[in-house]
Fold this protein.
Amino acid sequence: MPSWIVHATTEMSRALELFRDEIIELLPRLRRFARAITRNPHDADDLVQVTVERALRRFDQWQDEARLESWMFGIMRNAWIDEVRARVRRDRVHAPAEAGENVGTQSTDVEAIALQSALEQLPDEQRMAVGLVLIEGFSYKEAAAVLEVPIGTLTSRLARARDALAVILDEGQP
Amino acid sequence: MTISDEILMAYVDEELDAPARAAVEQAIAADPELARRVARQRALRETLRAAFDGVLREPVPERLVDAARNSPAPSSATRQPGVSDLAQARAAQTARRVRPRWSWSQWSAIAASVAIGAIIAHFMVSSRDAAPFTEVDGKLVARAELADALTNHLASTQAPDSETRIGVSFRSRSGDFCRTFVTRADRGLAGLACREGDQWTLEALARAQPEAGGTYGTASSALPGAVLQALQEQIAGEPLDADAEAAAKANGWRAK
């Protein structure tokens, strides 16, 4: 094999190592987003693991058109949709899934816990919008791209979610 | 001025442009009720963030780091072009991006080159018919004008304005005849082709380096590093002189 090919191949394994490092750096944020869209920490970490595995399998598809985090959050979103569908199928056979465990974080702040349990009651698509924009700080444009919806759809999900959450907040503040 | 909920939300999410933001701020200053709505929206955002920020400070479970370190990724042999080097990709983030639409593996060994991935992609995606090369049995083979020039041009007699300029001709270590070339068309390509049977197999391919005047394809164009390196790898002895080149051509570039 000519040495320039060897060289290029070496470059690519270096690129893969870099990619792995960047994923590791992103893990805390992936876990945070997973907490926002799942309902308990075990599901969240399982979801992160599935996301990481999928991302690496698709290393050859990453185009750097978006930031790595956008790409990976998109993979996580799809993985969660797959998981929810699989659960719906399982639940037809087995007992219904338990309600949210309300243990998203170790926070002892009453308001935070109230908000979290309110978030758990929102539909998945609204939780994802909230997770991306309000928690992860994505722009509307980036969040809409991750969720594969038009910006108008994103903002209306966001508005509905906010209304629902604001009610909870107001209830906690007589 | 009335501010819709939608505008207010966009304001809190910092999605408004400067004039719209200024208008909202002005309205807020004049309207305590509006100010209260904004404060509530901000409080919601902050409380939410605070509720989830704790996750960032937790130690990441080892199994997740493990997954990132060790989960299988496509091997380099099946890598697609245009995505190969993240650092490079990032540096060229604003540059033209190539979306591969064919199976990379069919390009076999030559496909491992990062540099040529984008070139191949360019032709295969946008102008397959105009490509100066094609794929035969997993190899890139010269076709059309390029194949003609490789077979028929002599470095010593070629016209200064020809589409393809031949550089150095030489015998490779395996005894085959190889030639470097630079094309004028297609934004300038430079490469190294070796004779195999009755075809010219491309061993290296890169964008030609433009000369000071910004033109491509003249004999004095510097060969890109990848092509030079391939030349140095493959050449056995000295390049052919004019007589040897003519003799090789007369003999149909057959290795003896």
Summary: The radius of gyration of chain A is 19 Å. Confidence is low (pLDDT under 50) at residues 93-107 of chain A.
